[in-house]
Design brief:
The chain contains four helices and eight strands, in the order αβαββββααβββ. It is of the alpha+beta class.
C-alpha cells in the first residue's frame, strides 16, 4: 500500500497495464486512431467535454501530428485553438492544444499509431508512473524533450523545450440565441451549462461561426 494514504499500489499498476494492453492491441490491429473509454464512467456526459455524437468527427478531423486527444476534462477550456468543425449531428467542436498543468484523469481519450510507438519506446527506457497523472500532466504537458526530440527529464530539465507527446483537447462549443456566428460564440461547454440558456452551435442550431 501507499505509505501516505493506504491506497493499493496494485490498483495503479493494473490501471497502467490495462491501458498498455489496449495500446498494444491497437498496434497489433494496425489502427490509425483508437479510443479508450473508462468502463465505469468514461461516457458520463458530466465528465465528457464533447457530445458522444462527435467522437467519430474528432477522429476524422484530428491534427496530423497528434498523439492524444482528450475528450473528457470539460472544466478546462484553455490552450490555443487549432480547429473548429461540426459533427454529423450539427454540434460544433473545437480542438485546442492541451496546455493545462496539474490535471489528472483519463476517462476517455483518442490516441494515434504514433502515440503507441513513442510511449512504448519511452517506457522501455525511462519507465512509467501513475497513469492518470503521468500521461496527462507529464507526457502531455511538462516540457521534457530538447530541440532534437531527446528526452531530458520532466522536472525543469535543462534544454527541455516541449512535451514528449503532442496532445489536444476536444471541446463542444456553446453560443447565445438567436445566432451562432463569431460574435456569439461564448466559450466551450461545461457541466454547469446543462439546462441553461446557451445552446450548441451547428447546422441544426445556427451557423458555425
Amino acid at each position: 500500500r501507499e505509505p501516505w494514504n493506504g491506497d493499493l499500489v496494485a490498483s495503479r499498476v493494473s490501471a497502467l497495464f490495462s491501458h498498455m494492453a489496449q495500446w498494444q492491441l491497437a498496434r497489433d490491429n494496425g489502427n490509425e486512431h483508437t479510443y479508450v473509454v473508462d468502463a465505469r464512467d468514461g461516457l458520463n456526459p458530466w465528465l465528457l467535454s464533447v457530445p458522444v455524437s462527435a467522437l467519430g468527427s474528432i477522429a476524422h478531423n484530428a491534427p496530423k501530428d497528434y498523439d492524444v486527444v482528450f475528450v473528457n476534462q470539460p472544466l478546462f477550456t484553455g490552450g490555443r485553438m487549432f480547429s473548429r468543425f461540426p459533427d454529423h449531428a450539427g454540434n460544433t467542436v473545437q480542438l485546442h492544444e492541451w496546455e493545462q498543468r496539474g490535471v489528472v484523469g483519463l476517462g476517455a481519450y483518442l490516441f494515434s499509431d504514433r502515440f503507441v510507438e513513442k510511449v512504448f519506446k519511452h517506457v522501455a527506457a525511462h519507465g512509467a508512473d501513475d497513469l492518470d497523472w503521468w500521461l496527462v500532466d507529464r507526457m502531455c504537458t511538462a516540457d521534457s524533450v530538447n530541440d532534437a526530440g531527446v528526452f531530458v527529464g520532466f522536472d525543469d530539465a535543462k534544454d527541455a523545450t516541449r512535451p514528449m507527446l503532442r496532445c489536444y483537447h476536444a471541446l463542444g462549443v456553446l453560443c447565445w440565441q438567436p445566432r451562432c456566428d463569431a460574435a456569439n460564440l461564448v466559450r466551450p461547454v461545461t457541466p454547469s451549462d446543462l439546462g441553461g440558456p446557451p445552446r450548441q452551435c451547428g447546422r441544426n442550431g445556427g451557423r458555425d461561426g
